[in-house]
């Protein structure tokens, strides 16, 4: 694999909150996306995910509590934890997201386009 210019990959995305898989490590996908000040609805995942802010700020609500993640900081959301993006988040975000256990549901999830 060659060197990936993460900031360039984020800039090339067609819109904010759409992600691009940069590579895979084991069963985890390493994704990049641009944040654009707009909120993202609450969600939960069967597996934990790591959120690494390259530049800007990620404003989260995790289990009802406000969490701010700044440049160079990472937050790991535990599996089955309710989390949402609050208004004001902007910059470049890298997400490391493990895929659910193999099975029909996991395959369907892997094939579904995602906006995060």
Low-confidence stretches: 103-114
Kindly report how far apart the N and C termini lie. 24 Å
Number of strands: 8
Round the Cα radius of gyration to an integer and report it.
14 Å
Largest sheet: 8 strands, antiparallel
Strand content: over 45%
Percentage of residues assigned to helices: 10-25%
> Which class do the helix and strand fractions yield?
mainly beta
H/E element sequence: HEEEEEEEEH
Q: Whole-number average pLDDT? A: 88
Question: What this model shows, in words?
Answer:
- This protein has helices at residues 6-11, 104-111; strands spanning 20-25, 28-36, 40-43, 49-62, 65-69, 74-77, 83-85, 90-98.
- The chain has 116 residues and is mainly β.
- Strands 1, 2, 3, 4, 5, 6, 7 and 8 form an 8-stranded antiparallel β-sheet that branches.
- A hairpin with a 2-residue loop joins strand 1 (20-25) and strand 2 (28-36).
- The protein is globular.
Distinctive features:
8 strands; disordered C terminus; 2 helices; eight-stranded antiparallel β-sheet; 116 residues; mainly beta
Question: How do you describe this structure in short?
Answer:
The chain has 116 residues and is mostly beta strands. Helix content is 12%, strand content 47%. The protein has helices at 6-11, 104-111, and strands at 20-25, 28-36, 40-43, 49-62, 65-69, 74-77, 83-85, 90-98.
């Amino acid at each position: 694999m060659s060197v990936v210019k993460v900031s360039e990959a984020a800039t090339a995305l067609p819109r904010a909150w759409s992600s691009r898989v940069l590579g895979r490590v084991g069963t985890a996908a390493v994704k990049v996306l641009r944040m654009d000040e707009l909120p993202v609805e609450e969600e939960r995942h069967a597996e934990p995910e790591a959120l690494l802010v390259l530049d800007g700020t990620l404003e989260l609500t995790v289990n009802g509590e406000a969490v701010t993640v700044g440049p160079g900081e990472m937050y790991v959301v535990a599996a089955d934890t309710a989390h949402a993006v609050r208004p004001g988040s902007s910059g470049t975000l890298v997400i490391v997201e493990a895929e659910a256990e193999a099975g029909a549901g996991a395959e369907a999830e892997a094939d579904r386009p995602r906006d995060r």
